[in-house]
Design brief:
A hairpin with a 6-residue loop joins strand 2 and strand 3. By secondary structure, the protein is an alpha+beta fold.
Length: 77
């Protein structure tokens, strides 16, 4: 399993709608609206690293109002 945190920049006013959509998405463990350089942080789990890019491009970047993503891959033990 691969754990990653996705930092999401959103169009102003779309943060809660994006959070709601993400929270209903399989593979998304948690999602929070935050203040700072990004607008949301999503914690996701995928079965292997080869699925990470597809998940981000197909499940996150296709959501209306998502402007940019930045991915942080967690380092395992």
């Amino acid at each position: 399993m691969v754990l990653a945190y996705i930092l999401i920049t959103a169009d102003s006013g779309n943060e809660r709608q994006i959070a709601d959509k993400l929270s209903d998405t399989d593979g998304v463990d948690e999602v929070e609206v935050v203040y700072g350089d990004c607008d949301l942080i999503a914690k996701i789990t995928v079965s292997d690293i080869s699925k990470l890019g597809d998940f981000i491009m197909d499940k996150i970047r296709t959501i209306k109002g998502v402007r940019r993503t930045s991915t942080l891959i967690a380092v395992g033990d």
